[in-house]
């Protein structure tokens, strides 16, 4: 039993020394900067601010481009739209009394015919199934 404990102690010590041998020596961070840590942090902040500024400028340019495209599309739609507004209907010429009566009677006959056709369709649609 004593032998087993000694053997396990030697193995553990050997693993510990090999782990220490593989660990690189401690190097303080930002050792390459002449100003040390404060200069490195300042550079990181400057780089990040530059990145954010470029991103903001790109977003603003995209927004301006989309506004221009939107205005162009609206102008195309407006140009394609049919003109609104009342089209002036030319005034109907005045006729003789007999002609006016004939026009009124003809309109009345057309209205009556339309009414008959519509009621015939309505009656057919309302029929019991």
State the main characteristics:
3 helices, mainly alpha
Helix/strand class: mainly alpha
Q: Multimeric state of these chains?
A: single chain
What's the gyration radius in Å?
47 Å
One letter per element, helices H and strands E, the order comes to HHH
What is the 3D form? elongated
Number of helices: 3
Number of strands: 0
Instruction: Name the poorly predicted regions.
Output: none
Biggest sheet details: none
Distance between the termini: 105 Å
* Average pLDDT score: 82
Query: How much strand content do the residues show?
Result: under 5%
| Share of residues in helices | over 70%
Signal peptide: 1-21
Keywords: Signal
Brief rundown of the structure:
Helices cover 73% and strands 0% of the residues. The chain has three helices and no strands. The chain is elongated, with a radius of gyration of 47 Å.
Structural commentary:
- The structure is a single chain.
- The protein is mainly alpha-helical and 129 residues long.
- Among the domains are: 29-79; 96-129.
- It is built from 3 helices and no strands.
- It has helices spanning 2-22, 37-80, 97-125.
- It starts with a helix and ends with a helix.
- The model has no long low-confidence stretch (mean pLDDT 82).
